[in-house]
Amino acid sequence: MTRFGSDATARPGPCMELFGCCGDELPTLRDLSQQAVAHALACALADVTAHAPPGAVTDDASSGASGAVTGNGPWPVAVDGTAGNGHDTLFLARLVGARGLVHAFDVQPRALARTAERLASAGLEERVVLHGRGHEELAAALVAPRAAPLSMPVGEGAWPPRVTTAMFNLGFLPGSDRSVTTRSETTLAALKALLPLMAPGGVISLHVYAGHPGGADEAAALDRHLAELDWDRWQVARYEFANKPRNPERLLLVLRLPDPA
Ligand SMILES: C[S@@+](CC[C@H](N)C(=O)[O-])C[C@H]1O[C@@H](n2cnc3c(N)ncnc32)[C@H](O)[C@@H]1O
């Protein structure tokens, strides 16, 4: 969990607070992912605040969730491409702000049920649309005019929505059917659909586990596709431990650069 996520106006530098206080370990890939995602959302919320009328910004310290800001948007839209047990969905829901929106996808009903439960316990279910379909259908789900219930706050930003951040935690769901894993074709389809929807300054985080059948292919396919992105519009970084003996994992962070002035 980010240490600055409850402050909607914070614009932390990317190097802040990554290391444990005793210096006994490096940041995990999950730490790096959350830091990058939280930073993108904090910047997007700061823009909402900047456009808010005077006196419209309030502090929501009681709930621990950010975003008790009343402004004219556009409010952040976030995507959790693999809802699983709902940890990342909840992380995003806490940070998108009161009128922001998270689209969370999973193909397993059990995963969606767990995610719904987790959100309900935190009282944040209204910030999330759960999609019981594959992330490869992301474009249809987000761009279709009826992507969200009419009660959802979808009308405040650009249309089609500009996505501030997206998280993909690939592989299989721990404690569940290990034969249901993400796959190269569908992960790439989701990524290709997502790239044109990303807002300038937006970040995609892909946590890739190569240890399951098909995992190495998926990692290689992502590397190939991301390596071809135009350096003037995108920055792509890959993080991994060089000597981790088991369960190889890596983190890919994709930043949509701001449009040239
Ligand atoms: C590693 S788990 C995700 C963990 C999750 N982010 C969390 O916070 O608990 C991977 C998930 O991806 C889901 N999945 C597999 N193929 C998918 C697809 N095509 N679209 C969306 N989700 C998919 C699996 O059902 C599984 O729940």
Automatic annotation (TrEMBL):
Q: Which domain of life is it from?
A: Bacteria
Keyword annotations from UniProtKB, A to Z: Methyltransferase, Transferase
Instruction: Spell out the Gene3D superfamilies in the cross-references.
Output: Vaccinia Virus protein VP39
Which terms does the UniProt entry file under GO BP?
methylation
- Tagged with keyword Metal-binding: no
State any single GO MF term.
methyltransferase activity
Q: Which InterPro entries match?
A: MnmM_MeTrfase, SAM-dependent_MTases_sf
Q: Which Pfam families match?
A: rRNA_methylase
In Swiss-Prot or TrEMBL terms, this protein is called: rRNA methyltransferase
Query: What's the source species for this entry?
Result: Nitratidesulfovibrio oxamicus
